[in-house]
Amino acid sequence: MKATEVVENLKQRFPNEPEYIQAVSQVLGTIEEEYNKHPEFERYNLIERLCIPDRLVQFRVTWVDDKGNVQTNMGYRIQHNNVIGPYKGGIRFHASVNLSILKFLAFEQTFKNSLTTLPMGGAKGGSDFSPRGKSANEVMRFCQAFMSELYRHIGPDEDVPAGDIGVGGREVAYMFGMYKKLTHQFQGVLTGKGLEFGGSLIRPEATGYGNVYFLLNMLKTKNIDIKGKTVLVSGSGNVAQYTMEKLIQLGAKPVTCSDSDGYIYDPDGIDREKLDFIMELKNIERGRIKEYAEKYGVKYVAGAKPWFEKADIALPSATQNEINGEAAQALVDNGVIAVSEGANMPSTPEAIKIFQDAKILYAPGKAANAGGVAVSGLEMSQNSERLHWSREEVDQKLKDIMFDIHSNCVKYGTDADGYVNYVKGANVAGFLKVAKAMMAQGIV
Questions:
Q1: Nearest by Cα to 397 from 384, 378, 382
Q2: What does the pLDDT look like over 323-338, one tens digit per residue?
Q3: Beta bridge partners of 159
């Protein structure tokens, strides 16, 4: 297998899908050597079967706004690969959602889920509907309309969606309620549910906490203590909030936070009181991060990202391709020692090369942010067994899973000079498990 030839073929077959091609290119470039050690993979055309999703579901979502006007959006579910378990992946509600973005996310999810060691396949879904600026009743009506079609394609042993950008506990609850009404069944078919009806403790915190746990494992390889380190965090949603919470607990100092309008820089650090303000602002008031700058009198930069500020560590926790080559070079020049991704594919290929050439600690999202789907898997287990684990039990399982993911990255990604290429390590480890399962199950 020559990665470049496979990518060129996919470009011809799926034009105008840049995010999908970017994700495939990055993975194939790092697994090519390992893949070619197994000639049986090529005979079974394994790489093409792994790159192309099992199933793409598209549908119209029609709903009524508060003024009585009928609105139409697109709904999607990409069921990428279920060779190691039921399809599993989030639902994203955002104006930017399209097939290319969801295909890249489902492809990445397949490897991420494999890395957790839990029995979960890869999927992703969503809509170009944005909850921003919508009333709670409008969001409810949209979620119900969305589930009225999606319910046909999901189930506890078929496909178990979760939340993502624009889909938090509120949206998951609305969709779960509609699923239950349509099927007459109470099943663990969505994760990220409320604690009152089958949700798991630590699930809201899991992606942010897990990213910090992965970071700690990386820092440990260099005998670096996180206490006292300044940290750049992007985003201000669920992942960013709990990333900052865990950083504060560990004695680190997050100094930035952002949304789609711009970022704030607080040189004194975001402490517990300030984080509580952000959580209320974003989760309840649905406000903008600029209001933090107005309240605390700190720097706010409109239309920009925080990567040009000086700090020790960067934790991108917003969205894809938010760190380009210029931003990556600024981070390296400013002395950043580690970058760990809380978002999915937030660094461009140029940025990743700069990080790796500089030999800093760099963890890709499929490894570092796998804590969210890991605890989703634990929620599935609790639902199946009708059990409820304590906060301490779930947190310890999360720490163990992130430790194991880190260990596998080190196992498959360490080069002759001792530098750990976490991108290669994560891709090879995730790929081998899926590939061997596909081989065992035959041509299906």
A1: 378
A2: 999 999 999 999 999 9
A3: 87, 155
For residue 76 the two structure tokens come to 């999607």
What is d(CA 157, CA 111) in angstroms, rounded to the nearest whole number?
A: 19
Q: For residue 233, which of 250, 216, 219, 245 has the smallest C-alpha distance? A: 245
- Token pair of 267, please? 């040189």
The HSE-up count of residue 239 (CA atoms within 13 Å, CB side) is 30
DSSP three-state, residue 191:
coil
Report CA 193 to chain centroid distance, whole Å: 17
Longest dimension (CA), the chain: 65
Q: Which amino acid is at 221?
A: T
Checking DSSP bridges between strand 230-233 and strand 256-259, what pairing results, if any? Answer: unpaired
Predicted TM-score (pTM) of the model is: 0.90
Contact between residue 121 and residue 193 where contact means Cβ atoms under 8 Å apart: no
CA distance 275 to 49: 45
The Cα 365–Cα 263 span in angstroms is: 21
Active site members? 124
